[in-house]
Design goal:
261 residues, mainly alpha, 78% helix, globular
Length: 261
């Protein structure tokens, strides 16, 4: 539906914003197609190739319509970055070229540098990714997205302690962001620091009372530290909001009937 609406809009106005958005829609269609188990491999390959061409064409058209807008080059880079894991020929090199062009137009924009860091990380060039992350942080010291990408890299390398330090750094820089405390809580939880996880998840819930995932994992962390009654409070709150959710029902049962789980 999004594709059709944007295509119709482009008939009336060949706007770079529409082309840019349409290219992202095609990437979304590729992801959905890859998850479709009902079609044959040959049909899938054919359809994906068409969508790859459409995504690349739309992103390029956005640049043609407005070559002075750096976001259009960032978008082209993002499109190629999305295609790189599919083995599309020269997608990595094309992404680098697009990001470099965007940087010449907006040299002090840390998000472009971070996009390049993400590209390097996706291509298993962690040292290069870390260099770009540092460049982004030099421009924006409280750039939490960059800090969490660094945490992700450290996690992938097995440096969980360093990843947690980075997440704690982000929490200090942005103390009112519930998402940051949730992500910190997950890192601590996965590192078996359940008491630390409780503190992070509690802060996430304090900052955002409707953060359902944070409530659920807070309940999980409570159970790990032997606070079953507190866990049940969280699960019961979630049960009222999502009465048919199996995970919540199982969590309630794990507290109410621990011998059954």
């Amino acid at each position: 539906r999004s594709e059709k609406m944007l295509t119709n809009a482009l008939v009336l106005d060949k706007n770079d914003v529409y082309y840019r958005t349409l290219s992202q829609v095609y990437i979304g269609e590729i992801r959905a197609l890859l998850e479709d188990k009902t079609i044959s491999e040959d049909i899938m390959k054919s359809n994906i190739q068409k969508l790859v061409n459409a995504a690349e064409g739309s992103a390029t058209s956005a640049i043609s319509q407005n070559p002075k807008q750096y976001i259009n080059y960032v978008n082209l880079g993002n499109i190629y970055s999305s295609l790189a894991p599919l083995g599309v020929e020269k997608s990595y090199e094309s992404a680098v070229t697009a990001y470099d062009k965007a940087l010449t137009m907006a040299p002090n924009n840390p998000s472009i540098i971070l996009a390049r860091a993400s590209l390097e990380f996706a291509n298993k060039k962690n040292d290069e990714a870390k260099k770009f992350i540092q460049q982004a942080l030099d421009l924006k010291v409280n750039y939490t997205d960059a800090i969490f990408l660094l945490a992700q890299i450290e996690t992938s390398e097995g440096n969980i302690g360093e990843a947690i330090k980075q997440a704690e750094r982000a929490a200090t820089l942005t103390p009112n962001d519930a998402t940051i405390f949730f992500r910190l809580g997950l890192l601590r939880y996965n590192n078996s620091d359940y008491s630390g996880a409780v503190g992070a998840f509690e802060q996430a819930v304090i900052l955002d009372n409707n953060y359902l995932n944070a409530r659920f994992f807070l309940g999980q962390a409570y159970q790990k530290v032997g606070r079953g009654s507190d866990a049940l409070v969280q699960y019961n709150i979630l049960g009222k909001i999502l009465p048919d959710n199996k995970d919540i029902k199982d969590a309630i049962n794990s507290v109410s009937n621990p011998q059954a789980t």
